[in-house]
Design goal:
Blueprint: E1 7-11, H1 14-21, E2 34-39, H2 45-51, E3 54-58, H3 62-78, H4 84-93, H5 95-98, H6 102-111, H7 115-128, H8 134-148, H9 152-162, H10 167-176, E4 180-185, H11 190-203, E5 206-211, E6 229-232, H12 235-243, E7 252-254, H13 261-268, H14 270-283, E8 288-292, H15 300-313, E9 323-327, H16 338-343, E10 349-351, H17 377-382, E11 384-390, H18 394-400, E12 405-408, H19 419-424, E13 438-441, H20 447-456, H21 463-466, H22 477-487
Parallel strand pairs: 1-2, 1-4, 2-3, 4-5, 5-6, 6-7, 8-9, 8-11, 9-10, 11-12, 12-13
Amino acid sequence: MVSKLKKLIIITDPLFVRNYIQTNAFEKILDDDTHIACIRGIASEEIIKKYWNFSGDYSVSKINEELFSYVSMLLMYENRKLNKGFYFYFKRHNITVYYKSIKLKKIVSRYIRNKFLQVIIIQILELLRPFRQFKKLLVLSSIITISSLGLTKLLLNIYRYFLPLNYDLDQIMLNVQPDLVLIPNGGLDSAVAEVMNLSSKKYNYKTMLLIDNWDNLCGKSRFAFSPDFLSVWGEQAKGHAINFQGFDSNKVYLAGTPRFDVYTKYKTNKLYKNLANKTNKSLIGFPYILFAGCWPKFDEIEVLELLNTLVERFKNDLPEGCKILYRPHPWGENYDYLDLLESKKLQHIAIDPQMSHKSRPDDYRRRSDFQPQLDYYPALLEKSEFVICPLSTIIIEASIMKKNILILAHDDKKNFYNPYIALKNSDYFDRLEEMKNNIFLHKLDELDKVFYEMITSNLYTNNQALNYYIVSDGTFYPDRIKKICDSLPL
């Protein structure tokens, strides 16, 4: 029984405070034998301390962080042929070597008119670019050399053998003596490596990572230290765990994500739904098409300007007073361009009131109080006519709410990591078209045609295709985690 299982939950990022602690994802396994710890200095430490049996915090030395980063990069390169994501993630970290600068080409073109001279100067500057980050260039060279000489496995074993035990974490483990350590995580995390290292060398407790997103197992690196078990979103992520991370299928469990429980609650709880609808109506008093932005820098304003003209052109096919409701990604670079967007005074564009403040604290990525409340999303999606978004998890969320989606997948010709590049170099966007409720926009000059198609087409969500991404068994995340903990072969 779970009550006899000593459990330790470790929180390493404020995002997991919102996604797991504030959603009460662990409510079904909390008992006297459950404890919680966190990384030292985490912005939401007080929330964690008050949540349950707090057993302490620990830190990771700068040297250990850099060693972990190096080994992770080496594993990305070593496993670059396994999928699209590992090698692309590696190349993004060494962008000056692998990709030409869009900005550099624009600057040279501005000052030099002669096309032949432009090409010569750009080539020379591109050759010199990597040397501006000489330390990165040395790291890259050493990684390629180690891999080419077949020394990756040896270096990984040396790293694992000589990585010292974390004293503060050791004290926590000594006090708790856990049988199982549960860690919400996204993959590349030196704080988690410390937990695995301590288990392998001293305590032999079992570890399970609660994978927080659909891209975590295919878009970063392989584990330097492998956990004993994984819980993942659905069949897609389970396939990533098996094919890209080398896990046995019987060690990977389908758990979904606690932040999607709000959608099930919204659809099944009338009181909750009425409250969410009331909040939505008080903030947004007009019909809207939701435009949900992405986190990489991408020219969303250009798309909004075109959409503004399309709403006017097709106003007779839309509800009276319909607007594009723009919701920039809370952690995205486009959030900083709200002033510019408002200065354009686009008649048919409005900003989601929840995201309308135009400044962010410097440490916003480390805070839970800046993160949008999860229970705001279901009504926001349901009340929309349809959804427009670049490639992001909002595709899954909108599909859960049975909304049709115009997926932006074009090259904006201005930013490196635009939707076209993301789609081309990622494994977790596979089979999206099978859900049947989306239309891809691959060329911006076809936006008018695709926009009209969204207005007039009767699309539907294929539930079987949706379940490939996110488990749907009629239960909530806390029930799934309890069931998984009960069944673990410890």
